[in-house]
From TrEMBL:
Family: Belongs to the RHS family.
Boundaries of every RHS protein conserved region domain copy: 444-479
Name used for this protein in its record: RHS repeat protein
Pfam families reported in the protein's UniProt record: RHS, RHS_repeat
UniProt xrefs under Gene3D superfamilies: RHS repeat-associated core (2.180.10.10)
Region entry Disordered, spans: 590-609
Length: 700
């Protein structure tokens, strides 16, 4: 019953292959005419030990790109060893149940961690003498409630202090050169940033409609009457005019010519084209009717971008301006959902991430000339060429794992058992391996902010080789790059594309100028009610996969509605709308409601708030005892509940009242509220111990 093939409109799409255990070994498809495949290897416990990505020439079958990553595990099952393509193994040193204590590259200690009694990181050291006299030492402190309080270094220009309000919102980040203060709406959205420095005092407001779409700045556009964007599709802003296609995807973006400015017909128009999976596959920028740049993108069957080709306008030998005949090619290698390798025509840049996160830790660069010196036939290639037999993909993966273990001098028990079954020995396989050249590499540590956005690259000697400054939405404001290092990473999971200005964000492309995505969320409403938005509190939440938000800094939960994990009941007190949304099924229902608050209600009963829906406690007679009235569900202790609404239908807990269960302080049609309560009851019955979030808010 396993899926082996999928077609789209009658054309072949993905193909799957499995081994005798039923484990996936290969998945492949065609992208822009290229055969792109992903191969997997496993140990005898079914754990992933290797992943190999390949791209083949559509005409000759020549291998254009190949990337492989290996994994090894401790006796406790922890992934303590990573084997990047072409690099020495990365070893993670842990203690207890897996708390990180240090990191080695090829047996050389590079990073050490010190932790407190709660196992929180307090000191991180890096450099040629990691530890007592490290070239880089980061010290972190926390508040009594567990929030990040400060991050100080032996490089004072990167020191940061953090202040929080009682709602768990980050309200200030202070450094030696500038301070930023943050303002929020009642629903937790970032509404403004005030930045002060020696020669700078600037306030930037962020106005949005109820769905979170950017509105014109009221100070710059006082005459604007726009209050909402239909279908969440922004038609224009201060810089561009936008056009979306029938699928809600951004199709065109054209320079906005302000009123009163003479049109010179030199505005630029950006064109975006997509495949059947809504992935951006072709981009071009037109000016004066001529293409200035074109780019094409390749993806693997999992939707990860594996290649990019860019043609730029240049002057040829005859003096004519036209697009270059030969494109700039860039290839990408992945470890799961994390981009670990960027291969350009000049160099290879590899990234080691902090375990279990999208925060980059190490940057390792190897020039192509050094790679060529280090290039040798793999063990699988030696055996194939000597025997004249093409090895199955899963066997090549197993041989790749064995070769990495042999070069590290640590052959696993699984590999020894496998060799014994084949009638081979470790010594025989070692004799087949070609000599290895150690290339010259440039190594830097990523110093990132609390979210994981790189702020500096630090050499093992403690020198700052690169530093960058960004706004809250990932726009680069300033950069110092004396060594001309290529640093494309932005917010977690994002990579900057110079040709388009967009950030590739795994499943989608992000426009930092708008602070939103250019296509709708592939997971639908599970990622939030607005299918385009990036988290509306970007200094607290991130979206590394381009799907849904994740918290990026510790602290009490903040009232931000995007990306709920449990069902969510929302009441918009201004618009008179109540919404129920279940992220598991994607089901939602919307109905009109009003908020006529009884004058006898407790103070604050009509204010915005956030709570959780729980079943009421009842007395011996089965009648709810909460706040002196009968109801089925409550949301807190202040008379905010799903309660009777004055209809003729009876509350099963209070037949004498004759009240119909409805939203706290709302009125709605009987059948709508009845259906809402049925959904709430059904979900809570099937998810014992879990609670539904209830939020009531005002949009103006």
């Amino acid at each position: 019953d396993r899926i082996t093939r999928r077609t789209v409109n009658g054309d072949p799409a993905e193909q799957w292959q499995y081994d005798e255990h039923g484990w996936l070994t290969t998945i492949s498809h065609t992208s822009d005419g290229h055969r792109v495949s992903v191969h997997y290897g496993y140990d005898d416990k079914g754990r992933l030990t290797g992943e190999r990505q390949t791209v083949e020439n559509p005409e000759t079958g020549e291998m254009l790109w190949e990337h492989e990553t290996g994994h090894a595990y401790s006796e406790q099952g922890l992934a303590t060893r990573q084997e990047p393509d072409g690099l020495p193994p990365v070893e993670w040193l842990t203690y207890g149940s897996g708390y990180l204590a240090g990191m080695k590259l090829g047996g050389t200690p590079l990073v050490e961690y010190t932790r407190d009694r709660l196992h929180r990181e307090t000191v991180r050291s890096f450099g040629s003498m990691a530890g007592s006299n490290a070239a880089y030492e980061l010290t972190s402190t926390y508040t009594l409630t567990g929030q990040l309080q400060s991050r100080h270094l032996n490089l004072p220009q990167l020191d940061r202090d953090y202040d929080w309000n009682d709602n768990g919102q980050l309200i200030r980040i202070s450094g030696p050169q500038e301070s930023r203060e943050y303002r929020y709406s009642d629903t937790g959205r970032l509404t403004g940033v005030h930045t002060t420095a020696a020669n700078l005092d600037i306030d930037i407001p962020y106005a949005t409609d109820p769905a979170g779409n950017r509105l014109p700045d009221p100070e710059l556009h006082p005459d604007s009457t726009l209050t909402a964007w239909p279908d969440n599709r922004i038609a224009e802003d201060a810089h561009y005019v936008y056009r979306h296609d029938e699928y809600g995807r951004l199709a065109e973006k054209t320079d906005l010519i302000p009123e009163g400015v003479i049109r010179m017909h030199d505005e630029r128009t950006h064109h975006y084209h997509y495949d059947s999976q809504h992935r951006l596959v072709f981009y071009t920028r037109i000016q004066h009717g001529e293409p200035q740049v074109e780019s094409r993108y390749l993806y693997d069957p999992l939707g990860r971008r594996t290649g990019k080709r860019v043609w730029r306008r240049e002057r040829d030998l005859t003096g004519w301006m036209s697009l270059s005949r030969k494109p700039e090619e860039t290839w990408y290698g992945w470890d799961g959902d994390r981009l670990t390798t960027v291969q350009t025509q000049q160099t290879r840049i590899q990234t080691v991430y902090q375990p279990g996160s999208f925060t980059p830790l190490l940057r390792i660069e190897t020039e192509n000339g050094e790679q060529a010196k280090a290039r040798h036939r793999s063990l699988a290639e030696v055996l194939q060429e000597d025997t004249g037999v093409t090895l199955p993909a899963e066997l090549a993966v197993m041989l790749g794992r064995l070769e990495r273990e042999l070069r590290a001098g640590a052959v696993s028990a699984e590999s020894e058992a496998w060799l014994a079954q084949c009638g081979l020995t470790v010594e025989q396989m070692e004799s087949q391996m070609e000599a290895e050249y150690i290339p010259e590499r440039r190594l830097h540590l990523y110093h990132c902010d609390h979210r994981g956005l790189p702020q500096a690259l630090i050499s093992p000697e403690g020198e700052t080789a690169w530093c960058g400054e960004y706004d809250e939405w990932g726009n680069q404001l300033n950069e110092e790059n004396p060594h001309h290092l290529y640093q494309p990473y932005r917010l977690p999971g994002q990579q900057y594309d110079e040709e388009s200005g967009l950030y590739y964000n795994r499943h989608r492309y992000y426009d930092p100028l708008q602070g939103r995505y250019i296509t709708q969320d592939p997971i639908g409403l599970k990622g939030g009610i607005n299918l385009y938005t990036y988290p509306l509190a970007p200094i607290r939440y991130t979206d590394p996969l381009g799907l849904e938000r994740v918290i990026s800094v510790y602290g009490p939960p903040a009232p931000d509605r995007a990306g709920a994990e449990t069902p969510l009941v929302l009441t918009d007190m201004t618009g008179g709308v109540t919404i129920y949304y279940d992220p598991e099924t994607g089901d939602s229902m919307t109905f009109d409601s009003s908020n006529r608050i009884d004058r006898r209600s407790q103070r604050g009963a009509g204010d915005p708030y956030t709570g959780e829906v729980v079943g009421c406690e009842t007395n011996e007679s089965g009648i709810s005892a909460a706040y002196g009235t009968t109801k089925i569900y409550t949301t807190d202790t202040r008379a905010r509940w799903l309660h009777g609404g004055g209809s003729s239908l009876r509350d099963p807990y209070a037949p004498r009242q004759g009240w119909k269960p409805t939203m706290g302080c709302t009125r709605a049609q009987n059948e709508d509220v009845d259906e809402l309560c049925k959904k709430v009851t059904s979900w809570m019955y099937s998810h014992p111990g879990e609670r539904i979030r209830y939020e009531r808010f005002k949009t103006r």
